[in-house]
Design a protein that fits this description.
The chain has 89 residues and is mainly beta. 4% of the residues lie in helices and 31% in strands. It has one domain. It is built from 1 helix and 5 strands, in the order βββαββ. The strands form 2 sheets. Strands 1-2-5 form a 3-stranded antiparallel beta sheet, with no helix packed on it. A two-stranded antiparallel sheet has the order 3-4.
Length: 89
């Protein structure tokens, strides 16, 4: 299994971090989730479940930030595409 993001790691682009205008933050936190694609799945895979937990946020917010959890995402053409801000929908 491979996970691909449309930006250079290790840093998130500003639109997914805390460097947003104050009116786009909730209690100082950006809730916009970043997009990613999961590929190289087993041929028999029908759905995928995942968790994205960011332990680097401990110094910022005081705990590991759960970006989002997903379950029963359908595998289509051998991959799962999670779009920009999918955690809000």
């Amino acid at each position: 299994m491979q996970i691909q993001v449309p930006f250079a790691l290790p840093n998130l682009p500003d639109e997914y971090g805390i460097n947003q205008p104050a009116d786009e933050l909730i209690d100082g936190i950006n809730l916009r989730s970043f997009p990613f694609t999961v590929t190289d799945l087993p041929k028999a895979a029908v759905t995928v479940a995942f968790s994205l937990i960011d332990h680097d946020t401990i110094p910022v917010v005081g705990f590991s930030w759960i970006h989002w959890l997903g379950a029963n995402l359908p595998v289509t053409a051998g991959q799962v595409v999670v779009s920009d801000n999918a955690s809000q929908t």
